[in-house]
């Protein structure tokens, strides 16, 4: 009987407020369903660590983390302390890439009780999942600057699309669509503007689609696709996208479904060669840090995704995932909820309420 | 007394339906306010032309167009006939780049009478303008493919940010913000993910902002910025963005304000060394072409922007612009309107109604 090792990494800002609530619920679920979990808290991977050590993480971070089964991650970034590209490329984006977490799953759902910013939309109208490529594409540090400091200065930045990288995320997305009732897939593109990378992406989408004759699929340019998230959110089922487009769609989707405060994500290495990472979609939100008003539900829901993935089919873990989701639904519908959902509760009150509802 | 030469270019699909209505209104305004305009219709720059000639435009397109003051452009693209990256890079994107139309202005406004997809938003809540860089950035055909056809295949695509290109669009946007009541500017970025280009963009934004102490400005990552277009559209005034981010925001903005069918754009060469281009934000929409249900208002509004720019301060042209805008407002509020606005009118009925309302 295996004990799953979980690294709990708060990071920056409200990461420190929501992670304890996530842990509270995950531990409650572990007791209830008899799950075998062990936890270790990691104090590095934060901007404060950077201010002390001149780097986001110790040099042996890879060795120290690779033995974990999962990283349960709060949020990182505090631009007034450390520029974002340094803090993120020094932690979260390193994890995603070096642990080959190439699948980023971001479910979007409108829950009963959540005030929807879209007029006339009901729970059930918005229920789709964004599958985001998570290791390459537009997120790259390749490139550089020429004629620095002169009026002729310019910067080149590479986007990188490999067949391996593109095909494996497409396969994951098509496989997922195959298991869903509507069997529908939309691929985000922008092949009319980005004339090298995106035509290649389109080509691989078409090739992959041939292997899935049952799937109804289309491709949509990112500009009109964003517009349709607002105008026709009910038409989506599985949306697969490159790293940048997936990033955009997975913030926009939850906004359309009421709040980014509940949106979870799973950064998976499906082969389980390395730890996978589970984190809220929202960031560290320095502007609200310290007030205990951050919504812990994204963190809690990410915990449920973690248990589901760890269990890998084990019924107890599945039950824990489903139980947490039900508890979340109940608390969102009946309260207490944080201010982003129109309530007055604190982060801790919501965390306790979900744990109790289990 | 100068006569302005306008090239009318329908392009593909509903470009052919909306352009005549734009011309109808622009010509009516010319009669009413005594404007000096001449028109010539250009039958190339379309996918049908490509099917006959193997290229989107004749080789001497630049010579033939450069003497015009403005290009009044429908829409281009018909993916079933010609792949989008070929049709667009062979026409519209060539115009923007070779005629150095580096400013793309895209106003977003919620009009009385337009059903808003955002709950509880009133006209007045949404009134901002997206200023999009239009000649470089992520839109590039630099790059290529390696190990083609093998499993090791990969593609590199360059984004290009020059100091000249970045600074001139920022200057335009800050200057514009300076003329507006709220004096507020938001710069779209993604410097946490795109680690070379976007930190440079941020740096130039900060440098430019120093010259405009009266402007309240901030920068927001594109993911959360998209979310805020939905959640807090009232907080924006001038939004300045790179080519790709401007593309996304200027489709999303109009969607939040009800329909892309009314969103206009002006692709300006502010120095007037080359013709500027005026076109709807919407595309050629092959799916609805031939049914005469396309909303011509984006085309008509683009015509108003054209007159304003051509006049360059001339009161008659200003009056024509304002008159067309009032006529648009009236027709949207009182009808007739096309199906995208909940009406049953045809493209032509709406065009006539706006012309009559002048
Ligand atoms: C058709 C396409 C190349 C174009 C763009 O992306 O610029 C369009 O979406 C626009 O916004 O004008
Ligand atoms: C913080 C940032 C680098 C990150 C991303 O863009 O991937 C975040 O926005 C996310 O969506 O996980």
UniProtKB/TrEMBL annotation, chains A, B:
Coiled coil: none
Pfam assignment, any one: Iso_dh
Cofactor dependence: Mn(2+); Mg(2+)
Swiss-Prot/TrEMBL catalytic activity: (R)-malate + NAD(+) = pyruvate + CO2 + NADH
UniProt EC number: 1.1.1.83
Alphabetical list of SUPFAM superfamilies matching this protein: Isocitrate/Isopropylmalate dehydrogenase-like
Domain of life: Bacteria
SMART domains: Iso_dh (SM01329)
Enzyme class: oxidoreductase
Domain Isopropylmalate dehydrogenase-like: 5-354
Keywords associated with the record: Manganese, Metal-binding, NAD, Oxidoreductase
Molecular function (Gene Ontology), one example: D-malate dehydrogenase (decarboxylating) (NAD+) activity
Family assignment from sequence similarity: Belongs to the isocitrate and isopropylmalate dehydrogenases family.
Name of this chain's protein: D-malate dehydrogenase (decarboxylating)
Lineage: Bacteria, Pseudomonadati, Pseudomonadota, Gammaproteobacteria, Pseudomonadales
